[in-house]
Amino acid sequence: MKKVVVQVKILGDGVLTPEDLPQLLGRVSEVISDGGVEAVVVSGRLPVWAFCALTHHFHPRPLVATFEPRIGKGVCIASHTPEVSVGDLIPVDDAEIVDIEYLPLHLQ
Amino acid sequence: MKKVVVQVKILGDGVLTPEDLPQLLGRVSEVISDGGVEAVVVSGRLPVWAFCALTHHFHPRPLVATFEPRIGKGVCIASHTPEVSVGDLIPVDDAEIVDIEYLPLHLQ
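Above: the input entities. Below: the structure tokens describing the complete assembly.
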């Protein structure tokens, strides 16, 4: 299965607040579709709630993972793919990279 | 809307590995249904991928949030409820508490 690493970078001071979430998800939607045949691995220095909102956003995808820097791989958190289960490690060496930059509301 | 705070505590050294995820989700399912009319706020000292797997697990719920200790409230990460949006803060003072304890695989 093809994979896309969605790398989210928060610009400025890097501080995201919950009010940023709708606009952040909107920004992500401009760059990459929530649905599609590729697996999505979400990556970034983000609060837990931003990660959870992003992985939920991509739930139409066949496989959703979060990148775990300590392992250097994705960890599958949701799968509609029989051969991959929740908790499985997802190598990303062969993945396409999609960079998304977002300026927090308090700096806009 | 009624709310449930699902407090997940990792026993022993508190270290969870990705291989724990299927069993952790199974343990959660024994204690509380993934669907239901109450909002769910997931809380705990957990890796990002565990939070994401847990919030995905509860996606049939009308509202899913993660508890943000710095704010003392939940942050909505997914909503099927018209009056609540992603990013909204969810007070939990009036919520039911469900405690879930899990012993990691490497200590079983």
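Note for the figure: Residues 3-107 of chain A form one domain.
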